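Q: Convert this sequence to structure tokens.
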Amino acid sequence: MLCGAALLIPRTMTAAPPPPDTLRFTVAVSDSVRRGDHVLVTLRLTNTSDQRVTLYLTGRTITFDVVVTGSDGQVVWRRLDHVTTQQIVHVKALSPGETLELRARWRAAAPPGDYTVTGVIPTDREPLRAAPAHLRIGP
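A:
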């Protein structure tokens, strides 16, 4: 008898990852904010190929992380710190030219200075990592 509560897919059944030139992964963030302001971080994953791309992500709602580091390389904030995530396979297909947007909000409580903001989307294989964006926090 089968139970419809969960379906576990072994790692050996995953698809090959899309070629690296088929996806563009970027972070959009304000150039500068004042200390204490809320910062909207938007991650954009775009299928730049002329064919449909199927991604094997995690979570019922797509799991993603945003990492903010100081100029010394120290992490000052991670969206997924102290968060339990679901290890459910989430199959997401992107048509040619389609963009998946994921948003997070962070309160810029760090001291004034220059920071780097990076996005990470876990997959069934290596995580997707966005090119970093720069953020300046002023007084």
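Residues 1-14 have pLDDT under 50 and may be disordered.
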